[in-house]
Specification:
The structure is a homodimer of 442-residue chains. Chain A has 442 residues and is an alpha/beta fold. Helices cover 42% and strands 13% of the residues of chain A. The first copy, chain A, contains 17 helices and eleven strands. An eleven-stranded mixed β-sheet of chain A has the order 1-3-2-4-6-5-10-11-9-7-8, with helices on both faces. In chain A, α8 crosses α17. Chain A is globular, with a radius of gyration of 20 Å. The two termini of chain A are 22 Å apart. Chains A and B meet through α12, α14 and α15 of A and α12, α14 and α15 of B.
């Protein structure tokens, strides 16, 4: 097995045991980036020499017996909207060109503490909204990688890093992970600090992770889930035991609920419809279908109302001072947000808590909800990063979500299977995701 | 001393000792209501026989050794926007005429548990907003009692009850208490549950108390401060030790900060200016003045922006179905709220946390802030309930506030002295208020 094919846990154990060193591991991934990134364009800031310097420091620490954490020597890609004190953070916009923050974002700080090598900054769409980036899908460069965490998903899919972090306000973790054929996991809203991450919406912004399998995703997420009072959406609570719960496995076979959502009829293509019909058939008694149309049909409208207003406020300076440097898409979105009435906004905000109450009650009966991740395979061409509509309800609620690369579409591009659960039930969600993956692959 | 002149603690102790019974105490207050309420009009719902029934039950319990709490047998007035399962709750509007809720509000539930006699429901302005009620000021019936908790303040001032509860969204506890010459105390935002109280604004609605002295107010507030997950603004925390902190007194002489606020120049009349100049002179080295104009000048605008939007949303049904039954004042307020942009609303909301951070830093240096309660004495006539502008910043922040009946104006009407402190610092605020009262009266 080549170094870049090792799981994160195996690679970290091999470094710990002195079987390999961080410099070798990082060099192998650098080689992959040098080979592939001209065509894929996943990296916004990448300095091979600086990555090697970090790796050598990690090796020196280990030799002195000062290992720092479970990610010691593991390279990680960082979406270019997380502040880094030692690399630019340009947020995918010319307006922030050359921006070099003085401090790390909370997430990057935690990754450094865990021993991770900050490999570089991955390409994002314009200010993590919808205007497509230059990144290509590693499975076929004629296809979109999705967005807004385009570079993070593509970098993991192309084996340029084993791990990467991104963000999701609507579908920006789950969608690119689905299109690129990797695991994307967005923990419960408020589990990972967004301190010094480009702010779109306090209501909906989530930090999420990309990995090649569930265990690696869980290992990365465990390093990031920590209370931070600088993020107003966080509460002090026990962190979920993701890895140990996955390892224990379910005591009894999980019960899933299949929810098509109202987008099934309006947005899902045949690949999705056929793929999910097959999965549901295969699962038999383990799954039952529930129609939640009455709860979910207005969600895209409420989400849009809130997101546009929040983005209009949080990108106010960029709009006021640099309107001409914004894409038409983003400028129009901000202008809609600026015109929205407060009474409509607050009406929509009230639905967040109300819908969570309803979802909590429904999810008491089930271990996880099965639902499409995307409307189909990645779009061909680069006019759009694809439709996030199958992610919208769970981003709206702040429910945890994971996409698993279990299917393929008619163009042989990956197609994710999304699982979600009630807020806070992340450990059981990942245990169920692991069970499902093993069942499908067995 | 007549029964109605006894302090609440003394009356409760006398009942506990069997020296008086609840029926006698309640009868004495009923007599006062029967004598005075034709002219004062403090009560919306008052049934003497039902009050006596509760008193006799309290006495029967005592005889069986089953006393219920520190307010056993004490009559309490309830602003007619707190739901009561055994009396109508009509919110000061014909639209809610005959409304009889099935359950008690959380506050009324707590008062019953403490042994209090629910004496009746006190008059409120229309939906607890600004349109004047029929209540008169007990000090002179040609003057306004203030609003919106008009009846609660007037009932305590006229010795019709020793205690009453009300609410404040802008100045509706402090202002009527100042005008009526009683103690009004509004604990920190989120200290008292607003479950089943007419909702105007989650941001600004506070439950507050009226009493004839600080100790009675503290005793009442201690019965009401209890975590209730049904109020989304509450957090689990240790309740403040109000009574014992007052009793201990300050270890060293308190340090006050005198803040005129921007309303001093624009709104305060000569009574206020002369009275406060005198108080500040009298306090000498115990007080220093601070100009917070830069922090406070926009607060009335932000408060108005948020309050109008929140009222527009929360009174939406009344507006949509009964527009013609709303006062012009309230209808116009709602219509402004309906037209406010979300971006302006959210901009204003952001200032709540920002201003609290600034006030927390300032208040580290002081035991309490000294500031006018009202722009002057109660207005003559009934066109207005007076201006709440000296309460607006502390309602905006959710800081605790108390008004003390320490001054008189040129018409021999009462004039309150307001003290406020940082959020959560209620015990020290009341200790300082007690110290100030004793110093002024010594």
């Amino acid at each position: 097995m080549s170094l870049i094919e090792m799981s994160v846990a195996a690679a970290a154990a091999a470094i710990d045991a002195g079987e390999i060193n961080a410099e070798e591991l990082v060099s192998a991934y650098i080689n992959q980036i040098n080979t592939l990134d001209d065509s894929i364009q996943a990296w916004e800031h990448f300095d091979a020499e600086y990555a090697l310097t970090q790796a050598r420091e990690a090796d020196a620490l280990r030799k002195r017996g000062q290992q720092t954490g479970p990610l010691h020597g593991i390279p990680i890609g960082i979406k270019d909207i997380f502040d880094t004190h030692d690399m630019p953070t340009e947020d995918g916009t010319v307006i922030h060109k050359g921006r070099t923050p003085a401090e790390d974002s909370a997430a990057v700080e935690l990754l450094r503490k865990s021993g991770g090598i900050i490999m570089g900054k991955t390409v994002t769409t314009e200010m993590a909204v919808l205007h497509p980036s230059r990144t290509k899908n590693p499975h076929n460069p004629e296809y979109s990688p999705g967005g807004s965490s385009s570079g993070s998903a593509a970098a993991v899919a192309a084996n340029m890093v084993p791990l990467a972090i991104g963000t999701q306000t609507n579908g920006s973790v789950i969608r690119p992970a689905s299109y690129c054929g990797v695991v994307g996991y967005k923990p419960t809203h408020g589990f990972i600090s967004r301190h010094r991450v480009l702010l779109q919406s306090l209501h909906f912004d989530h930090v999420g992770v990309f990995a090649r399998d569930i265990t690696d995703a869980a290992l990365l997420a465990e390093q990031l889930i920590a209370y931070d009072k600088r993020d107003p959406s966080m509460q002090v609570r026990m962190p979920p035991k993701l890895l140990s719960t996955i390892e224990e496995g379910p005591l009894v076979p999980p019960k899933l609920v299949f929810v098509k959502t109202p987008a099934w009829n309006t947005h899902a293509d045949n690949d999705v419809k056929e793929g999910f019909t097959e999965v549901v058939d295969f699962l038999g008694d383990s799954v039952e279908e529930l129609d939640l149309t009455h709860l979910l049909e207005e969600v895209p409208h409420w989400h849009k109302t809130i997101m546009e207003v929040d983005i209009a406020k949080n990108f106010n300076r960029e709009y006021k001072q640099h309107k001409d440097k914004l894409s038409d898409n983003l400028r129009e979105l901000i202008e809609r947000g600026r015109q929205t009435l407060a009474i409509e906004y607050n009406h929509a905000v009230d639905h967040i808590a109300a819908l969570n109450t309803a979802m909590d009650e429904i999810m008491v009966e089930y271990d996880a909800m099965l639902t499409p991740a995307t409307t189909g395979e990645a779009p061909k061409g680069f006019d759009t990063t694809g439709d996030p509509i199958f992610c919208t309800p769970w981003s709206f609620c702040g429910m945890p979500a994971i996409t698993l690369p279990l299917m393929q579409g008619s163009n042989n591009m990956p197609l994710g299977v999304q699982l979600t659960s009630a807020k806070g039930d992340d450990a059981r969600l990942l245990r169920t995701a692991d069970w499902l993956t093993k069942k499908v692959n067995s």
